[in-house]
Amino acid sequence: MSTHSLIDRHRAALPPWSPLSYRKPLELVSGHGCTVRGGDGRDYLDFYSGVAANLLGYDAAPVREAVERQLRTGILHTSTFYLIRSQVELAERVARVSGIDDAVVFFTCSGTEAVETALLLATEYQRSRHVVALRDSYHGRSFGAVAVSGDKRWQGTGLSPLCVDHVPAAPEHGENDQHHVALCVQELEDLIDAAPGRGIAALIAEPVQGVAGSVPLAEGQLAAYAHVLRDRGALLICDEVLTGWGRTGRFWGHQWDEGVHPDLLVFAKGAAGGLTLGGVVGRREVMSSLPMPSISTFGGNPLSTAAAVATLDFIVEHDLPTRAARAGQGLRGLLTRGLAGLASVRRVQGRGLLLGVAFQDPATGVPCAEVAAAVQEECRNLGLLVGLGGSAGHCVRVMPPLTLTDEEVRRGAALLTAASREVDRCRNST
């Protein structure tokens, strides 16, 4: 069947708000490590890794073997009404690596469902539906997750089941802006002190804002927010859907700041090596606050949790957070040097192997989605897959598997640099 026919069927059967990348959408038909083969017969170096979900790359032996063992049992699903050995084992491991005292874990099918669970727990525990989030944030596509997301492109009608306020996120010009942190703290303090009724239930924050273009919070910003929340009796929810499991160079993204102790921590994406799994880990007191029973039919199913146990064991045994820190530093350095002097490049940003390149209109200096989209297309032409993001759609997002080799770091940097230079040259010549 031709790709053209599949595109037509996709457009006929799926809603228009479920977009495809590239002018000629791509089907991926096989993969190994950091390389995938497209339906067009070409091989690509994948620096997007299924929106960061393929943490160990494609056809990772530990994940494949764990899935095959579970498949041989004939049990793919039972539900949370039954004991699931791999679910219990995974919960024990997650509780240990969470750093949260007396931690309890609940598994879901996705990051969006995990965010919804955390919001439900926080508002029930605090008996308040007033939540604070960060500007330019993204937390998922469901009703509550959309309500707290600060990126206006994802907010839809603006209707909300929650009372939501937004406070500043990252500074415009770098990660070490302490004046920015002081202003942020003051705004949060004023907001909490002025809150009516039972006050603020929680603040939800991404340590690095992924959809915004891999933008880290300022150094000490999350810790400062955590201090304010603790003093005023509000909860901290760390959304680690994208930043967890070692991607930023720490096991959790919030660990870049000292003194941050989340009440609830949300995870998903790479947790099961590409299979669907999300969850919430938090203090037992908060996690026990629901007044009614609740389940997730497919959350924590035997297949996904078996894959997740294998993934987590591999991350720990091979110290992938350290690998991500080193590889990310090398990749960022290569990109920064390679893109220096290009009028269309604003900056390279991010942490570990969660990076972004922000582009601008060379004539005006205004963030430019058109340039970023052109770079993404040119990357594909050269054999590299990357994503798009940014508050103005002006960023190329780079999130390769944590298992990529040094040679793949160099090759990916060279391809992205070449694509950016070609787009910059074409725009300057017109």
Automatic annotation (TrEMBL):
Molecular function in Gene Ontology: identical protein binding; pyridoxal phosphate binding; transaminase activity
Cofactor: pyridoxal 5'-phosphate
Signal peptide positions on this chain: none
Alphabetic keyword roster: Aminotransferase, Pyridoxal phosphate, Transferase
Keyword field contains Transferase: yes
Superkingdom field: Bacteria
Family: Belongs to the class-III pyridoxal-phosphate-dependent aminotransferase family.
Name this protein carries in UniProt: Aspartate aminotransferase family protein
Source taxonomy: Bacteria, Bacillati, Actinomycetota, Actinomycetes, Kitasatosporales
